[in-house]
Amino acid sequence: MKNRTAPRRLAAVVAVVAAATLTLSGCLYAAIPETKPSQTKPPVTDGVDADLLPFYSQELKWTSCGTTFDCTTVTAPLDWENPDAGDIELAVVRHQAEGQAVGSLLINPGGPGGSGYDFVADSLDYAVSPSLIENFDVVGFDPRGVGRSTAVSCLDDAAMDAYLYDIPEAERGSDEWEAELKARNKAYAEGCEAESGGILPYITTVNSARDMDLLRAVLGDEQLHYLGYSYGTFLGATYAKLYPERATRLVLDGAIDPAIPSIDVGTTQALGFESALRAYMADCLETEGCPFTGTVDEAMSDLGALLASTDANPLPTGDGREVGADTMMTGIIAALYSPDSWGVLTQALSGALQGDGSTIIYLADFYNDREDGTYVSNSSEAFRAYNCMDYPADDDQAAEDAAMKKIREGAPTIAPYWEGPDACEDWPYPPTGTRGAITAEGSGPIVVVGTTGDPATPYEWAESLADQLAEGVLVTYVGEGHTGYNKGNLCVNDAVDNFLIDGTVPEDGLVCE
Fold first, then answer.
1. What DSSP assignment string belongs to 249-266?
2. What domains appear along the chain, each with residue ranges and CATH number?
3. Of 482, 377, 464, 451, which Cα lies nearest the Cα of 18?
4. Which residues form the Peptidase S33 tripeptidyl aminopeptidase-like C-terminal domain (predicted)?
């Protein structure tokens, strides 16, 4: 989940899995051996159409980019339906297998807009287990529109600060408030169009899935080995839909349900985050230093009062910015991705109750990838570009009203800060994506991992996706937090690793406590 939107397009689909913990470090790899000499296999071009052969037949030139990694750039068509219309570049990083390589394992950390390049290069042993590092060339890539690849760009740092953190002048929910937010969204969309070099209509998950098949081929693999987290499950399922015969070992962790209407996506997420917030509160009330007392219901009511107070009287932070209720909600949501971050959330809410917004804004900055006044990635911009093209708008007023009623009743703490005008209403291009079940007939087994307490991609979505897929296999992790693999549960890790390494398919319905 990233930027929350109005009920007409409640398609706020999951932040990158790296947001799962605030203790994630990029300095984890001193003990990994030095990079092997770069190895390049010939590209796989069997059955490729003549107009795509120049892309599929390119030979990669790897260069060292750190003590244990090598990097390259892959050229892809801007428009897969018209390959002569121009090119884009895809940035790729690889950690070669420490043992005998089964093949390449492509990784996507989510978003849409998360950098797979950074995820692998900065956090290899968070992205995958030691067994996968031993057996695969682990490959991270920035999808089109993201990071080091040909990227979406919208606003400079100062303008992004204003867009994400400025507090509306009008009263929440008023016509003037809605008009103010609409004007901001319009200016944002205009900035994206002006600064992105004409790529916006081609920033779609379908195009990114086709890019992924290109990566498979130029890496020299006949079949795809893939581990996708969060939004990466939608990318992986889309790949399986387009290329089922090559989708032989796919793992989709923290699944998105491609079948539910756009309007239901954000509704389900709102309920998921409210549930996660209640789980946090129950834990907090049993922990020394918790600023809340009483029952969970009473504590949630007190948190709602804090949010309302902050809405009326923003909190200082010490860096010149103020924390309004929307920024506070962003910080809360950032910490709900993992129980490992609940302690930081307690500190943030304790400070807020004392009139200090500095830790809350730290959490919001973490969520928005902001460090020392600079946005270190374009994840927010790419997120908007993908969602505005992938998700068809819902124009059914009755459905909108029903969705908001469900949110207000089921997520009363979150609901006031989940509403707002459609962030994609003034996007310069109409959406091309559709919603529908993905069966991927003809694929190999596809393992879907669902976490029972996942706030961003609720467990019911994993159940639904595994059921839709013709060869779907569901693995359930009983726990809290976003995604389940490589979080310390040997049952989940063994199921995923054995499947990816040697094709051992876990029992469908396996439950890992």
1. EEEEES---TTS-HHHHH
2. 1-13+154-190+261-435 (no CATH), 14-40+93-141+201-259+439-512 (3.40.50.1820)
3. 482
4. 419-512
User: Which pLDDT does position 11 carry in this prediction?
Assistant: 35
The strand ranges marked E within 278-378 are: 315-316, 322-323, 370-371, 374-375
Kindly report whether the global pTM for this prediction surpasses the value 0.90: yes
Q: Is the peptide bond before 428 cis (omega within 30 degrees of 0)?
A: no
Q: In this structure, are residues 444 and 471 in contact, taking their beta carbons and an 8 Å threshold?
A: yes
C-beta of residue 116 within 8 angstroms of C-beta of residue 143? yes
Residue-wise pLDDT tens digits, 234-250? 999 999 999 999 999 99
Q: Which one, of 11, 10, 5, 114, lies nearest residue 483 by Cα? A: 114
Mean pLDDT across 368-392: 97
Q: What is the pLDDT of residues 74-106, one digit of tens each?
A: 999 999 999 999 999 999 999 999 999 999 999
Which residues share a beta bridge with 322? 316
Instruction: With H, G, I as helix, E, B as strand and everything else as coil, classify residue 63.
Output: strand
In three-state secondary structure terms, 477 is strand
Distance of CA 210 to the CA centre of its chain: 19
For 386-427, the pLDDT digits (tens) are 999 999 987 788 888 899 999 999 999 999 999 999 999 999
Residues in the chain: 513
Here the tokens at position 12 are: 């706020």
Q: How many CB atoms lie within 10 A of CB 286?
A: 8
pLDDT beyond 80 at 303: yes
Which pLDDT score, from 0 to 100, does residue 427 have? 98
d(CA 309, CA 325): 8
pLDDT given for residue 10 in this prediction: 35
| Whole-number CA gyration radius for the chain | 22
| Other CB atoms within 10 Å distance of the CB of residue 374 | 9
* Residue 274: Cβ-neighbour burial (10 angstroms; 0-12, 13-18, 19+): buried
Q: What is the mean pLDDT of residues 35-43?
A: 72
- β-strands 472-480, 446-453: how paired? parallel
Q: Tally Cβ neighbours within 10 Å of residue 99.
A: 10
Residue matched to tokens 């950032």: 334
Residue 40: per-residue pLDDT: 77
Q: Which residues pair with 91 in a beta bridge?
A: 73
Which residues does residue 151 pair with via DSSP β-bridges, in sequence order?
A: 145
Question: What is the pLDDT of the chain when averaged over all its residues?
Answer: 92
DSSP sequence for 305-340: HHHHHHHHSPEE-SSS-EE-HHHHHHHHHHHTT-GG
- Residue with token string 């050229």: 75
